[in-house]
Amino acid sequence: MTPVSKSDSIIIVGAGAFGLSTALHLAQAGYRNITVFDKGAEIPSPFSAANDVNKILREALEAWKTPLFAPHYHQTGFLHCVSEAAPQKAVNTLNSFRASAERHPEVRKHIVPIDSRDDIIGAVRQFQDGSLPGWKGYLNQYDGYAHSSNALKAVHEACIALGVQFILGEAGDIAEILYETPTDHANHQTRKATGIRTRQNTTHNATLVIIAAGASAPNLIPSLGTQIVARSWSIAHIQLSAAEASSLRGIPVTYARDLGFLFEPEPATGLLKLCPMGGGFVNTDPATGVSRPPDALADSGFVPAGDGRRLRRLLAQTLPGLADRPFVGERLCWFADTADSDYIVDYVPDTSRSVVLLSGDSGHGFKMFPIVGSWVRSLLEEGDGNQKVLRWRWKSPAVDLAGNWGDAVSWRVGSSEEFRDIRASRS
Ligand SMILES: Cc1cc2nc3c(=O)[nH]c(=O)nc-3n(C[C@H](O)[C@H](O)[C@H](O)COP(=O)(O)OP(=O)(O)OC[C@H]3O[C@@H](n4cnc5c(N)ncnc54)[C@H](O)[C@@H]3O)c2cc1C
């Protein structure tokens, strides 16, 4: 039996990728009393990991071609390589992606093998000045990227049209979930959520509370412990002139697994986005072992020196004419990481199915933006209240590596560093 009826009140905390998608799917399914709260004053929220110009898409591509999402999907292709300096781990990951693409009957026809610099120049003429030393991999012409902040805006507008209410900014900053006091808490009688309290001390009642607060989820669900680790990666951009930007129109998402990736410049602004790949940065509270994003956005407004050097190498090898251009819009972007890189889409234990957690994007969740909300709807409407997809269940605290799994994750290169250390080395 579903824990909510179509007229019951549903609160969603977080209007990032997961929260907006959930509001959309539930509203489309006829739930008519949905309120979304976000501490950002507008959509996209400046606190959202999806507040960005581009995100790589490699899954859910059919959903990205539907009318609401298609304007934000750019099928430029995905050039997926390693450079000559790549560690064996990165080469192995690349080879396993390439083998899997070449095995797949539908994907195979879109794959161009890249075994030399000439193969790259043949496919992407804009890289003709690049040294591309030892770059090998493949070009998948079916993949591409999404303009993530524009996609968020479009879904926000669609939700408003469907009657979803939004409370944004200070009035939407949630301090805690409220619960009925259990009569016998000592014997673990389960609690039931009654709503939420904002930092301005206003309460809002609800039958169901859905937490989609990304990397900040542990602030609202302390029992998460270290299942979710707030981790950040760097983002930087370079400013191009209109002519430079148009000369790079249509370049594929270009990813050297040992260096990072870059995208087609945004036509409206001429910004070319760069993102280094690595184990990322955690912000661990020594007392609890829990990593949380820093409160103030300004604290994350820089790119650590090592990442900056990797991005310079990426540019020097691909677009050397831009290699010394100053970076703009530098920042660390926080996401919710799990040890197995899988999402959590489940009821929070001991809440009588009154609280759903939607998190653990692990830095690759935006691609699922068009469909995440359908998973929440299935959880609410199908089955016995147990998440059927085992890997999306509330995770056992036994998987607790205190967040230091950056290097253990098969698809990443490099170890985690503590935010306080990189911050200190900056000043
Ligand atoms: C550098 C970087 C690059 C990435 N690249 C890709 C990529 O190429 N492809 C891809 O698929 N994914 C990518 N991702 C991951 C993608 O951005 C995330 O998977 C996605 O944004 C997760 O959505 P979310 O809704 O869980 O969290 P978010 O989008 O972060 O949204 C969480 C929301 O909760 C709000 N919030 C938090 N706490 C509160 C509170 N107490 N009260 C009210 N509101 C609150 C925030 O304001 C925010 O809007 C990348 C992430 C980073 C950091």
UniProtKB/TrEMBL annotation:
Source domain of life: Eukaryota
Protein name per its UniProtKB record: Uncharacterized protein
Species the sequence originates in: Nemania bipapillata
